[in-house]
Design a protein that fits this description.
With 680 residues, the chain is of the alpha+beta class. It is 45% helix and 13% strand.
């Protein structure tokens, strides 16, 4: 192998003009810097704001040194920069340990390592650090985009490694890229076999205790004016649904989440201790079967259409239901989960509730909203029954000029009074919260339910996509012999929100509010919509078939292959057997097609490599005699014994290869090996 002078400190500036082509060593080093930059791109989104610019500055510094032929920085300067970087990591994370701090330090160490490369082992350290950082990128994202960037980065790293291995004429960059891509493609069958067969553990391998509970956007366990409106601006996907039966009407797609019953005058929160009782549900009509793929949200809530017939089944995370019909998991949902559910959209919920259950749904904080209390008393005095009170309240919302908006005016201490009689502008949390207060003040048990409403069918794959912008709040009131009845006061003010979607009633804004998208079906908007749907369908397929390949799915796959007892030993044996078969199918054709090498020429190449490692590489134009003359010249800095052994070796090789040897050429092989051993 040839030496790597690009890793040695240059003692003089390059005297060539900058317009001349770069030397091979400089070109290879710049390719290494480019590959390391691709690796660092995987970590831009989660590194502290100062880390990536620092890494880019160090890479630029190293590139300038290479391009200009300057000396490497002294060790004291590198030590100062390294200490400064480690201090920055500690200031950002208050530790040097853990996933995030460790990845930040590795990114900085990779770039700093490039400033002190002096030997070939330093090259391998940088390459191995790059591969490890590529793997660490999956700590944060396992999306298709991450996989694509990973493939490009790995191909660049392989090409860089190949570039430094050539000893003679170097092929063009395009040819080296093709070779790197070929190596990557040859590894794909083995990668696929390991993905399917390697024994899987429950939960993500990268789930570290200090990092597992990272905050995620989604519904909160409390509701106050404005918090659901903030979610309406997010297009992030909450969950996807695949229906096995006809999809219910959009007005029936209420995905039940959190039930809120305690009100302090400003914020709604779950009841302290919901009074337990026998929950009776009378269902009508045919059930709807579907499958939910729920994105991680860091809480324990599960979402299902009202009302589910049975509890969802989650592997290793049992689900249960509360008396107020909330679906909860035993552990927080920190990874994507998928579960089957069956629901009835036509039902009576708890029609014969015992009297002890209802008082908690009538509580109101004293000293708040006196005008609402007086208005509720007036509605009660003018009504014959509870249904009349509900209809009068909805008629009030519909006829008194209320507006549905994401930017309502701020509210003070008596928030419900100000909303009902002054501002009359708000989002779904304003309407549902005010309606429940009004009902309780009228003596009707009521509560707030938050979840999601509606969704959008993706024509590319048929899945219903429910986004954070579909977050919604509605009310439930209890009526004698009917039980808990859903009442959505938002529908009285803005029916389009329930029948269509949020964009149909509130225009979306883009580019900081400079452009308003009114939901019209113009050609370019429709095209963008189709592109987004197609991309989301591809992403969903990636989630369903790749990221959602769970231990349970793997066990089912082995059972489908005929293995009754599926344990780690069985999986390991099958994996090794299949892996060996895959490797054989790849290597045997390559070995069979490999040209046979003459053993005499092979031992001559061994001498050339040994001399190259000592700093005397053979030039492409040099034959054995010219090469030997240069190695054994009086001014050659080699020991006399080594020169003598080299001379005898090359003389014998020249006779065997080009002359008329007395015996068969292979009979000289042991003699050549002996002389090679003396060429130290």
């Amino acid at each position: 192998m040839r030496p790597v002078p690009a890793f040695q400190s240059l003692r003089q500036r390059a005297s060539r003009p900058l317009s001349r082509p770069l030397s091979r060593d400089k070109a290879d080093t710049l390719l290494l810097l480019f590959s390391c930059g691709l690796v660092l791109l995987l970590h831009v989104g989660h590194l502290p704001a100062w880390v990536f610019p620092s890494c880019a500055a160090i890479l630029s510094w190293r590139g300038w040194i290479t391009f200009r032929g300057n000396r490497m920085p002294p060790r004291w300067m590198l030590l100062a920069v390294a200490l400064l970087a480690m201090g920055g990591v500690f200031a950002s994370y208050r530790t040097w340990f853990g996933r995030d701090a460790g990845v930040a330090m590795l990114a900085l160490l990779l770039t700093l390592k490039l400033l002190e490369m002096h030997a070939k082992r330093d090259l391998f350290v940088a390459l191995f650090l790059s591969f490890f950082l590529i793997l660490a990128g999956y700590f944060y994202s396992q999306s298709i985009g991450t996989a694509l960037v990973t493939i490009i980065a790995v191909m660049a790293i392989l090409t860089t490694q190949l570039s430094f291995q050539y000893t003679g004429t170097v092929p063009p960059l395009a040819q080296r890229l093709r070779l790197g891509a070929k190596i990557l493609l040859l590894s794909a069958p083995l990668m696929l076999a390991l993905f399917v067969l390697f024994p899987r553990i429950q939960g993500p391998l990268w789930g570290m205790p200090d990092d597992a509970q990272a905050g995620r956007s989604g519904l909160s366990d409390t509701m106050s004016p404005g918090n659901i409106a903030r979610l309406a601006l997010s297009d992030e996907i909450a969950f996807r649904v695949r229906f096995f039966d006809p999809v219910p009407a959009k007005s029936q797609l209420y995905w039940r989440g959190i039930v809120l019953g305690r009100y302090d005058g400003r914020t709604w929160s779950p009841p302290v201790r919901p009074v337990a009782g026998q929950v009776i549900i009378n269902t009508r009509g045919a059930p709807t079967r579907y499958q939910v793929t729920l994105e991680p949200h860091g809480r324990r809530w599960l979402f299902a259409l009202e009302v589910p017939r049975a509890l969802p089944v989650l592997a290793g995370n049992p689900a249960f239901v509360t008396p107020d019909l909330q679906l909860l998991s035993s552990q927080a949902i920190n990874e994507r989960v998928r579960y089957d559910a069956t629901s009835f959209v036509d039902f009576d919920l708890q029609p014969n509730a015992p009297p002890a259950v209802l008082p908690q749904w009538l509580e109101l904080p004293p000293g708040f909203n006196p005008r609402t209390q007086a208005f509720a008393a007036r509605l009660r005095s003018q009504a014959n029954n509870n249904e009349d009170v509900i209809h009068a309240a909805l008629r009030f919302f519909r006829d008194q000029g209320f507006r549905y908006t994401l930017e309502p005016p701020p509210l003070g201490r008596h928030a419900v009074d100000e909303f009902l009689f002054s501002t009359r502008a708000g989002f779904c949390e304003h309407y549902s919260g005010a309606f429940v207060v009004l009902m309780r003040a009228s003596g009707i048990p009521a509560r707030v339910v938050t979840g999601y409403q509606g969704g959008e069918i993706n024509p590319a794959d048929g899945f219903l996509t429910v986004r954070q912008s579909d977050a919604h709040a509605w009310a439930e009131v209890w009526l004698d012999r009917r039980g808990w009845v859903r009442v959505d006061p938002t529908a009285a003010v803005s029916p389009g929100r329930v029948e269509q979607n949020l964009a149909s009633v509130i225009p979306r804004r883009a580019f900081g509010g400079l452009i308003t998208l009114d939901g019209s079906r113009s050609a370019w908007i429709a095209q963008l919509q189709r592109l987004r749907q197609n991309w989301e369908a591809v992403t969903n397929a990636w989630n369903q078939w790749v990221l959602n390949y769970t231990p349970e799915k793997q066990r089912n796959f082995f059972r489908a292959l005929g293995f009754d007892k599926v344990d780690w030993r069985t999986m390991a044996i099958v994996m090794l057997a299949v892996g060996a078969a895959v490797m054989a199918s790849i290597l045997l054709p390559l070995l069979a097609g490999r040209p046979k090498r003459d053993p005499i020429d092979a031992i001559y190449q061994s001498l050339c490599r040994r001399m190259a490692n000592l700093g005397f590489p053979r030039a492409p134009h040099e034959g054995p005699r010219a090469y030997g003359a240069r190695l054994t010249a009086p001014d050659a800095p080699l020991p006399a014994a080594t020169k003598a052994a080299i001379g005898r070796f090359l003389a014998l090789y020249e006779t065997v290869r080009y002359g008329a040897p007395e015996k068969a050429p292979l009979s000289y092989l042991s003699q050549l090996k002996t002389l090679l051993a003396e060429c130290r």
